[in-house]
Amino acid sequence: MKTDPDVLSTDAPQCDRCGRCLSVCPVYSVSHVETDSPRGRTDLTSAVTSGELNPGPRFFEAVDRCLLCRSCAVACPKGVDTASNVLAARAEVSRPHGPGARLGEAAMDALIPHRSLMSACVRTAGVFSRLLPADKAGRRHFPEYLPQMLSGRGVPPITGRPLQKRLPSLVPRSPGSPNRGRAVFFTGCFYGLVDFGPGLAAVKMLCDNGFDVLIPPDQQCCGAPALFSGRLKSFKTVLRKNLRSLAAVEGPILTACPTCASVLRAHYPEIAARMGGPEAEQAKSLGPRVQEALTFLAGLSSLSLPGSTQIRSAAVHQPCHFVHAGGDPAAVADLMHKRGVELVMNGETACCGGGGVSSLKNPDLARELGSAAAGKIAASGAEVASAACPGCVLQIGSHLGKAGSNMPAIHPLEILCPIR
Amino acid sequence: MSLHAELKAALRKAVPTGYLDAPEDLRVYSYDMFARAEPEAVVLPESTEQAAEALALAERFETPVTPRGSGTSLTGGPTPVRGGLVLGTARMNKVLDLSRADRIARVQAGVITAQLQRAVLEQGLFYPPNPTSADYCTLGGNVATNAGGASGVKYGVTRDYLTGLTAVLPGGEILATGGRCMKDVAGYDITRLLCGSEGRLALITEASVRLLPKPEAVRAMSAYFTDLKATAEAVAAIMSSGYAPCTLELMDRAFLKAVKQAYDFDFPAEAQALLLIEVDGPEATLGGQMQAIARLCKEHGAFQTTVAADETERAALWQARRGGTAALVRQVSFMVSLDYAVPVSQLPAAVEGIGHIGRKHGLDVAVIAHAGDGNLHPMVIYDPSDAAQSAAFAAFDRDACNAVLELGGTLSGEHGIGLEKAAHLPRQLSPAFLRLAREIKRSFDPRDLLNPGKCESFCSNED
Question: Which of A17, A331, B271, B413 lies 20 to 30 Å from A222, alpha-carbon distance?
Answer without folding.
Answer: A331
